[in-house]
Request: fold
Amino acid sequence: MSSAPLVSVLVRSHNDAKYAGQTFAALLQQDYPNFELLSCDDDSNDGTAGIIARFPTLRLVPRPPGRYVPGRTLNAMVAASRGEIVVFNNADAEPCSEQYLSLLLQPFADPAVQAAYANQISRPDALKQVCKDHERAFGDGRLAAQWGDFFSLASAAIRREQLLAFPFAEDIQYSEDVEWAKRCRQRGGKIVYVPAAKVLHSHNYSLKQLRRRFYNEGRAEAQIFARRISLVHCLGQSGMETLRDFGYLLRRSAWKELPLAPIRRIIQKFSFYQGARDFLRQRQQR
Reply:
């Protein structure tokens, strides 16, 4: 019998057939001696469910009825779990080593630590612009530490007692991890970044997907923090980030990305601005 505390690893999936097999296999090969693996699939239609069925040791959690709400699914999975610590790992976030889980859990030796999140490495096929954003958001963690409520549930761990006492919000469609982290920090909870715990996780969004993603993140930003940036600030951010993009791409000879890089950046920043603006306008009209 292992003396290590039981850990519950929760995996959400939706049309993740491209990566789910590698992710589940890597999780089952972890060197941490005492964990259970739970899976909840959100009506995938690309064969993800068949891939999950190849791993009979997984414990399946039924999808909550109705439309998908991240917090509702997460809370249902937490309720079904049994571990002292709950690890969240998306089906498209593949651990980079057998030590990933052990490394992610190390900070919990400190009783003050309520949550920890891992280092998300860009996939080999990621656009260089995407790689740059990942390096800024994760990397050594110094930059993200200045962003206040940064947190990512794509690969993270939280004490189960905290999740039962303070569950995920079920009235928000995006950034439920940031909303939870905000409340955790307001309570004085300590959240730790673990750069040595690494997963492969990145997306080469199309322009349409990029607009949708950041529009909804902008709405969530306004809902969580009741704030939005001005159009002038948005344009300034777009310009500064585009200059950083050009420098990064030129240093890596990513010539093919140069023409589209400013378009992608403007869509990202302006969509975020629009989402926050629209949410606050709609709330004022109620």
